[in-house]
Every structure is written in C-alpha cells, then in structure tokens.
C-alpha cells in the first residue's frame, strides 16, 4: 500500500497548501544552499538554539547510527542550521539537500516533515509518497518543532533517511530530543528565578516528563515548559495573571522556608486545579534580582503572595546567593573569593578560618551555590552545638532500633543527606576526638556505615569545614587528629574580621538595603566614624543585628544617628573611649599615680580583655560587679 492512500489529516491539508503555493509535484527542486556569508549569519542568529541543540543531536545520532539517517536542525523558517549523520543513502546530487543553508519550508518544498511541522506547530512524520514533490518520495522524515519559553517555534529537529529505513520509534526519539532541547533553553533563560520542577509522580522529577515553571523572586509567573503548561492545564497567556501561590497554593515565603531547612525533601503541592504534585525548587537568585522583587513585585495584584518580612527576605537573599553577593570591595576578601573560585567543583576540601560571625557559613553556602553541585543539597552541621552523645548518630545515621530511644525506623545521617551535594562541618575543631577517626574513614573510603548497621553505603560529598580555633594548637594539645587535619585542609582561606575590612561603608549600605526592604536608610557620618573605630567582636552578626534595631528606632527618619543606637553599643563606645584615655599602670607608678587611679586602670584593662563584660571582669578580679561599677563610675 502506498502511504499516500491513507493520508492523515495534516498531510492532506499540507498537500492543499502546497498546491496553493503553486508547486508542481514533478518539478525538480532547487537545493542550492545559502551563500557562505548568509549561512554564517544564520548560524549566528540561531546561536543559542544551535548551542543547546548540538549535544542533544549528537546523543540522538548515537541511537540511530548506521541506520542511514541524518539528524537535522533548522531555524524557524525551515532553513537547515546544522546536520550530522550518514548521508550515504543520498544520491550525490541530493546529498546537498540535507546540508546547512538549504530551505525545507512547505513554500519551497511542499509537504515535508520540517515544513509541515512548522506550518502545523506539531510533530510531523512524512513518509515516502506523502511528500508532495515526487523527487522527495525516497525519504522518510520525522520532525518536531522546538519552542521557546513563550511557545514560539524557534526551530525544528528532524531525522531524515531512506524510506526503506523507516522505524516506528524514530518519531518518539525526535520528540524526546526536541523536548530535551526546549528544557535546556528554558533553564538557560531563567537562571535568576525561582524554578520549580513538578510532576504527580515523584520519580518523574528530573526526567523529560517533568513540568518546569519559573517565577520572579516575588512569586510572579514568568514561564512554563511544554509539560508544565500541560500539567497546569493553562496557556502561557492565561498564566500571566498567576503567581506561585495562586498556582501551587503556597506563599512563596513557604518555599523559602522549606529550603531553609538543612535537608529539604520534595515539596508536596496542590495545584489550582486540585491535582497534587511533588516538586523541587531551584532558588538561584542574584541579589540584584532579589532586590528588584522586593520593590517591584509588591505592586502585583491581589493574587500576589504576601511579601516576606524584610529580615526574612534579607536572610533568604543571602542564603540563596553566590560568591558575587559577598563582593563589596575588600581586598582580603577578593583574594579569598578568587582562591575558592579556582577550586569550585574540583573535589578539593575547603577549610574556612575566621572569628565568629565573619560569614563562614555564608561563604560555604555561596561556594556550594556557585558549584556544579548547586542543585543538590547543602547540609550544614555545627559540631559545637550538637551534644557529643548525639553527634555520631546525627552524622552517620542509624538503623532501626540501633539504640534505645532511637526512632523506630532509623534515620539517615547528615553525611548521606548531603550525598551528591556539599557537607559543611562548622566548628570542626570541636568534633569529639573519638569521632574524628570515623570521619576520616568516611572521607578516605567514601562509604558511610550507619550505627547498628553492617552495610556500608557509598557517598559522594564535597566537604567544606570551618573553625575559629587554631587547629595546629589543638593538634599539639592532642585534641585534634593530625591525619584528619591534613585530609581537610585542601584549600585554607581566612575571612577577615570586620574591623580589618576596608569596605565597611559599602557593607553597611548593603545591610541597610537588605534589612530595610528598600534603600531609604543611611548612617550619619558620626556613626560611620564610630563603626570604623569599633572592634566588632561579633563581626557581621553583631553589625547586622545592630542595624536591624537602628532601622526600627529610626522609623520615618532616614538618617540613622547616635540616638537610634542600642544602649549596649553606646556603652561599648564609651568604654572604649575610657580605655583609650586609661594610662598604662607601669607608667602610672613611674608618674606617681595614687592607688585609686591604678585600681581603675587595672579594672579597665581587665574589662577590655573580657570584651566589656562586667560579670566576667568581676569574676576574674575576684570582686563583685558593684565594686567594678563603684570603682569606675563612668561605666554606668
Ligand atoms: N558579607 C556579609 N554581608 C551581610 N551579612 C553577612 C555577611 N557575612 C555574614 N553575614 C551575616 O552575619 C551572620 C553570621 O554569618 P555566618 O553564620 O555565616 O558566620 P560564621 O562565621 O559562620 O559564624 P559562627 O562562627 O558564629 O558560626 C549571618 O546572619 C549572616 O547572614
């Protein structure tokens, strides 16, 4: 039976169109390709499509190799941009027909898979005598359009071969490959957005079947891929008035909360049409985009989710951002960023040193966010805050009934939770000595054995550690294993304390902008001067908290000045001023100072040593707090 005897509707309508274009079935087609310059221009105009399609074309070709077929990519008008494969099935004269620069629109070739897929906006299989021109009856062609995130056809993927090589699975392979290209183009278009991948069946997330939808940081709908539109049951145009919350029944802040937990699982979502789906979100937002959302998205209509509180938004912005968020002009920090950037994705453990609050965890998260593992979990464990008795099960997990009190079903430890991603061990210097050998074994063998189990599970984690101890001192005191130390310190970087940073003014501006939800506040010159002189023992944590309070105090005033500062900060400043004025006791003896003055000087020195803490100073000097206040009256 000739295929043309049983023509599907789209072939029939295409034949009618071909007639209307004035084409004659027996005419000899002109296959002359574009001139070299025009072809270069065509490739340049379709650069993005070309870049994302070529790897998928190569994979597709691997599956049909030796079947006398060619894989072809065209632009939106059906002009071939790239082709690869076996052209040995073609007559010499026809060989040029499937080369870059040749047009395969219906207007020029009549019914053919590429042209018909474009005309109909759907995949098209055109076999043998279904081609309008007799000259093309030797071909069998399966083509699928490739659409951009707005649903516009931007190209066609096609497999063409000798009609005797027809295989019923070819069309499915072409459709899947086109979908793969569309998904890649989609991901590239929405790098700085909230992107959610969803499907009613959890095992389909991460496959070609998943729906993908992107939202602005404030939750406004941006776009969805083909499967996303299908699952949501709405067109791109209809989705324009939607938000994350109107489509998935959750405010966008709940999404951020979910990913704030150390090891978030899949999201359970209920779509606007009542269908339950599982989802995984990617929250890669540059700070600038995030800032924009804080201002512009608040103007979205009633369906928009409730805006996050300023501090919630600020902490989310920091958490989700990469290394560029940390760049504020300090030279020491630039060097740190330069070094860690070099080892990204290289499986080199990173050790971050620095005083408390200098941003060690933030740096670790930023390293992870910029690494090839960004889509996988970032799991942080603070070795100092977990009781020694629990840290082993917390890290390694345990089997059912491994010990009394264990949850019935056992638990997966943090190391396995981080599998495929990054494990951040904060305060590694406080890891109990007995566990250090176990950790070392995991790192060397890349296997974890949960408590109470005899099975080892392979694990692949990128390791980042942080400490504010001098680990060499701890090794010397027998508190830290030297072998573990050498295993951990692939790249050692030190975060500068705030008092050494040269970008304090920018840092203050940045914190004010993120903490206040807008750029309204600034600090007075006097405050900035005080900030520059302050020691900042709590570093960023202290400065952030201080500015957060000052913003509340300033209210409608835009300039933050002395009267908006919390009392403890003012006390610290006063104390520092008194200390500056306090002479050295040895000099005092030489200069004939009296006992009272010398006492006062000793107390001030001790206060300085104890960070201004009066109780600790009193304890150290063996006197009561009252005595301290009595002897240094201007402390009150
Ligand atoms: N560069 C920065 N810009 C703005 N805020 C920052 C910056 N670095 C750190 N912070 C903020 O300071 C606080 C402390 O940061 P982080 O927890 O990363 O410090 P850390 O060195 O790990 O502290 P610790 O040693 O106490 O665990 C956090 O609220 C963080 O968001």
UniProtKB/TrEMBL annotation:
Record-annotated Sigma-54 factor interaction domain positions: 326-552
UniProt cross-references to SUPFAM superfamilies, sorted A to Z: GAF domain-like, Homeodomain-like, P-loop containing nucleoside triphosphate hydrolases
Domain of life according to the entry: Bacteria
Species, as recorded: Pseudoduganella danionis
InterPro entries (UniProt xref): AAA+_ATPase, AAA_lid_NorR, GAF, GAF-like_dom_sf, Homeodomain-like_sf, HTH_Fis, P-loop_NTPase, Sigma_54_int
The protein, known as: GAF domain-containing protein
Key words of the record: ATP-binding, DNA-binding, Nucleotide-binding, Transcription, Transcription regulation
Keyword hit for Nucleotide-binding: yes
